[in-house]
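Complex 208.
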Amino acid sequence: ETVVVATKNAGKVREFAHAFGKLGMEVVSMFDYPDLPDVVEDGVTFAENARKKAREVAEALGMPVLADDSGLEVAALGGDPGVYSARYSGEGATDARNNEKLLRELARVSNGGESAERLSDGTKLLSEARFVCTLALYDPATGTFTESEGYVSGSIMESPRGESGFGYDPLFWVNSESKGMAEMTKEEKQAIGHRGRALADLLQKLEV
Ligand code: ITT
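Predicted structure with inosine 5'-triphosphate bound:
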């Protein structure tokens, strides 16, 4: 069985391929449909964007499609970058530039950070934060959505740790695991992460 995921994010593709692989399903993504037009993500909520991506691609392909809209909410930045997480550093944004921008913005709002909490190696934690993932599955045959969401809370570190994952993972400390998100295996990240939790919730709703 194949699951179509309306994403052009290679990090998401790897995580979905891992998760669905364990269920004996194969994932295809927008990398497999290079001719489909990009969906304009102009929603003001994660859920709106997820629904829009799922529906436009599902209607174009004439089959059910899953979409993921996700991002990072940083307490000291009033919830930014939020739905703008992918484009945080502007035109030509990359994960590396987005992470630099995040540290720059946190440096601006901190008052020296002398009171900041520290990890045992001295690394400062600059703000509380959480990852959000919303999933929307749209079935064009019935015109219905199945939706779910997942969260994981943590803190933003002043310097990166770990080599796995993608996006903001290198700066995200998972308090409950005492580990950086980019220090986790796919399996560990799926178990505790926002995407894994959203997916578990979705599968329960679909009774898979
Ligand atoms: P698609 O819309 O094609 O799926 P995108 O990268 O534009 O890809 P989003 O609009 O959902 O996806 O933006 C999500 C951004 O939030 C993404 O670019 C990452 O920087 C960040 N993000 C989402 N999930 C993450 C995760 O598990 N770990 C680290 N960063 C994540």
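Strands lie at 2-4, 26-28, 65-74, 117-118, 124-139, 144-157, 172-174, 179-180.
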